[in-house]
Specification:
TIM Barrel, 12 helices, alpha/beta, 8 strands, 252 residues, binds phosphoenolpyruvate, globular
Length: 252
């Protein structure tokens, strides 16, 4: 049985005071929730203050990105060890905004995934097709290519620790959500890809989140699908009420 996992990706939003206030509110409201893993992923400059705000609560800390090198002359970058040092458990890797706006390749994501695993951080690896790719019927080809490229050299034991986020790019921040059936079809396909590469046990243990305009109003239908194990939430994670409204969609 996979434990659901809901994570908030705050992206480049909020300021120091509002980040702390949001983290405190989520931590407070999460106190009464059982049976789900929760995380918030603030901008890197606020990781430290948010770590303090969620300390001792049910809410874990995640980063939105990292660099694959352990240290050295890489101006502006942050290593996996630094994220661990500051209290992160998770790191989002290969988000579509990093792939499509900042030019990250599967090879770049792969180096980061291997470095995160080495540091015992849990990567949340994002995969997802563009609208023209979906319309051309190429969704699973894209997902397979991104999976193979981003997760090259990952052993079975490491794979079982990774979280995948299926995020169709056309549904991110657009208000256009994939139907539960569209999402479930890709999640099931992903589980088959994992099973073919590893085995059934690994495939059944990997958590696959859905991401793309998840809100309290659509969460229950999406999260009710057998192969959707949680959500990576952007816009709706910026208010405690809507983030916790999505958690409520699990019906726990
Ligand atoms: C995201 O950026 O990971 C995301 C899913 O954003 P939104 O929920 O705003 O579509």
């Amino acid at each position: 049985m996979r434990r659901p996992f809901i994570a908030g990706n705050w992206k480049m939003n909020l300021d120091r005071a509002s980040a702390v206030a949001l983290a405190e509110e989520v931590a407070k409201e999460a106190a009464g929730v059982e049976g789900v893993d929760l995380a918030v992923c603030p901008p890197s400059v606020y990781l430290d203050v948010v770590a303090a705000a969620v300390a001792g609560s049910k809410v874990a800390l995640g980063a939105q990105n990292m660099y694959h090198q352990p240290n050295g002359a890489f101006t502006g970058e942050i290593s996996a060890a630094m994220l661990c040092d500051i209290g992160c458990r998770y790191v989002i890797l290969g988000h579509s905004e990093r792939r499509h706006i900042l030019g990250e390749t599967d090879e770049d994501v792969n180096k980061k995934v291997l470095a995160a695993l080495e540091a015992r951080l849990t990567p949340i690896v994002c995969l997802g097709e563009l609208l023209p790719e979906r319309e051309a019927g190429r969704t699973m080809n894209v997902i397979r290519r991104q999976f193979n490229g981003s997760l090259a050299g990952v052993h079975a034991e490491q794979m079982a620790r990774i979280v995948i986020a299926y995020e169709p790019v056309w549904a991110i921040g657009t208000g256009k959500v994939a139907t539960p059936q569209q999402a479930e079809e890709v999640h099931l396909g992903l589980r088959k890809i994992i099973e073919n590469r590893y085995n059934q046990e690994v495939a059944q243990s990997v958590r696959i989140q859905y991401g793309g305009s998840v809100k309290p109003e659509n969460a229950a239908d999406l999260l009710g699908q057998p192969n959707i194990d949680g959500a990576l939430v952007g816009g709706a994670s910026l208010k405690a009420e809507s983030f916790m409204g999505i958690v409520a969609g699990l019906g726990l």
